[in-house]
Structure formats: structure tokens, C-alpha cells
Amino acid sequence: MDAELRELYQELIIDHARHPRNFALLADHTHSQEGYNPLCGDKLMLYLRVQDEVIQDISFIGEGCAISMASASLMTEQLKGKPTTEALALFVPMHQLMTTGGVTEAEQQALGKLTVLGGVSEFPARVKCATLAWHTLKGALSGTADRVTTE
Asked: pTM of the predicted model, to two decimals?
């Protein structure tokens, strides 16, 4: 990745970390899940309103490092209005992107703006921060009763 593109990606991540989108308690949620990253201390509560297997609305509250907050913010933007099956299908390529940095061109297309998080793969200590929102989403949609952790 060239330096100019990397800088643009970093600016987008910083913007989402400082001004997270969909950062609120969703009062009329149908699904919720708590997520925790004990390694870094990141905590979030994810809320979804699902109707007819479509994510009508999604939000989160919590605290954590810039990567954790940016990942949750970007995820909520990407998943609003998507079928739950499509949201869950993004988990594997998203996890692969953040752990190895490599995904197919079709997966890149499906991930859209989320590909900005690919640089996380260069910092293994930050992978759990970046994947926390995604593990929490998976738990919320599968009905996991316990708090989800990245351990």
C-alpha cells in the first residue's frame, strides 16, 4: 500500500475513533450483547434492532482504544440495513483481513470501507481490539447469553 493511501486510511480510522458513528443506546433493540477485551480493557455493548432477519438499526456504547472504537463505528455503518446472514458472512473475511491482511477481491468488494482496518494485521497486539465488535456481533446474533470476550 502506498504512503498516501495508508495516510488516508489512518485519517478515516482516527475520525471514526474520535467521532464514532451510531454511538448510542438503541432503546428499541431486539438483540444486545456485551463484549470485553481483557488484554486491552476495551468494553462495548452492542445493540441491534432486527426485523424479518434484517438489521434495521445498530448502535453501540462503550470505551476502548482508538482501533476498537473505530472498528465498532465502521461496522455499524456497514451493517445497517443488511440481512443478518450477510452480516455474519462478513465475519470470516473481516477476521482474515485483520489477522493476515489478505482477502480476495470479491471479499474486498463485500467489505467496502471496512478494508481500512486491514493495516491492523501489521500490529498483532491490536487485532483483538479491532475484532471485538465483530465477536460481539456474532454473539448477539447467535443469542449468546454470556459476555463475549476476545480470549
From this structure: 0.92
